[in-house]
Design brief:
about 375 residues, alpha/beta, TIM Barrel, 2 domains, eight-stranded parallel β-sheet, three-stranded antiparallel β-sheet, about 20% strand
């Protein structure tokens, strides 16, 4: 992997760059769609390319469960298995430590939408998984059998999957964790980072992950520690409490500690309103399920907000989803038709909305790159 910065903004920490892997060039900043099980739900790989996607991220934990990394490797690796000829990332499985653990216990995401009274303190354990010094014991969502995932296992699985960029195994703490728990999770993450570097035998690029939650001193400590190790790039992970303004400040703070010449990826953040601020804070790439998740629930992102096509009022609306959008969906289908498909529970609606939403997100970031190039951001 090679990374080159083409231009740095004079108005913010935004930067324009080129990330080169053996499967092509990624122009940064870049949005990274989430292909959890080696697919963007409802789209073929050809359609995923047609919506201007440059790079995807697949899920190590779920691909380990099914079909298993051995089957994927026997098919020539992820690229050939899913017929994706461009760049790929795989996460480490660290997010599932959160999502299948405290995230499930409290029904929360990485950022709290509303404050809860329950606080996760040092030495607390989730109900469904067990976190230890050497890794995490899960119960398989498929058959309930216990399975173990640690830094050694994560690296071996990711090497077999064969993505261009892989991530070190980490612990993603919950947003209601206190200082003591975040410090403990950060310490485990740092120990696992060293093991991941030692275990990796492939030529894949390995990114180290920075933790520390919403605590300034922990984030600085983690950024300095991870950046002192010979990683090819960095992932900014974990939770950010319940304040997005503080999240942006924290991302900016972390990026100030990191070397300029290596790429920075923000894990699991990317609502449309987040994109410009995180890019201005110095993020080079970021992944998020928002455009695909919302599409499957009947929502379309447009220039002035989003549409809920579940509403009956759109049955009489003969306009395209977005008059300013030149994607094939907006050129050929009306709000009326797509609203009908949703109400009729036709899966074609989900395909059309997924295509449009990804095109919209990728196009939005493409315009930001152009503005950085022209000195407007």
């Amino acid at each position: 992997m090679e990374f080159k910065i083409l231009k740095k903004s004079k108005k913010s920490r935004a930067r324009l760059g080129i990330l080169k892997t053996s499967h092509g060039i990624v122009e940064t900043p870049s949005f990274v769609p989430v292909a959890t099980q080696a697919t963007i739900k409802t789209l073929t790989s050809e359609e995923t390319k047609a919506v201007k996607s440059q790079i995807l991220i697949c899920n190590t934990f779920h691909l380990h469960l099914k079909p298993g990394e051995k089957i994927i490797k026997s098919n020539g690796g992820l690229h050939k298995f899913m017929n994706w000829r461009n760049s790929l990332m795989t996460d480490s499985g660290g997010f599932q430590v959160f999502s299948l653990g405290f995230g499930r216990d409290f029904g929360v995401g990485k950022i709290l939408k509303e404050k809860i009274n329950d606080v996760v303190k040092k030495h607390h354990q989730p109900k469904s998984i067990r976190i230890g010094e050497h890794g995490v014991w899960f119960k398989s969502p498929i058959d309930g059998k216990e399975l173990f995932l640690g830094p050694e296992e994560s690296i071996k699985i990711q090497e077999a999957l064969g993505a261009d960029i892989i991530f070190a195994f980490d612990e993603c703490p919950p947003p209601n964790a206190d200082y003591g728990y975040n410090k403990e999770a950060m310490r485990r993450t740092h120990n696992w980072a060293k093991i991941c570097l030692k275990e990796k035998k492939s030529n894949q690029a390995l990114f180290g992950i920075i933790q520390g939650g919403k605590f300034k001193d922990l984030r600085i400590e983690s950024a300095k520690f991870i950046s002192s190790l010979p990683f090819d790039g960095f992932g900014i992970g974990g939770e950010f409490g319940d304040d997005k303004k503080k999240m942006i400040k924290m991302v900016d703070l972390v990026n100030r500690q990191l070397p300029e010449n290596k790429p920075r990826h923000l894990l699991g953040i990317g609502y449309i309103e987040d994109i410009l601020p995180i890019i201005k804070a110095g993020v080079d790439s970021f992944d998020c399920i928002v455009p695909t998740h919302y599409a499957r629930r009947g929502f379309a992102f447009i220039s002035n907000g989003k549409l809920d096509l579940n509403k009956s009022l759109f049955l009489k609306d003969k306009n395209p989803l977005d008059k300013k959008c030149d994607c094939s969906v907006c050129q050929n289908y009306t709000r009326s038709y797509i609203s009908h498909l949703i109400r009729a529970k036709e899966i074609t609606a989900l395909k059309l909305l997924t295509f449009h939403n990804l095109y919209f997100f990728n196009g939005y970031v493409e315009k930001i790159r152009e503005k950085i190039k022209n000195g407007k951001i």
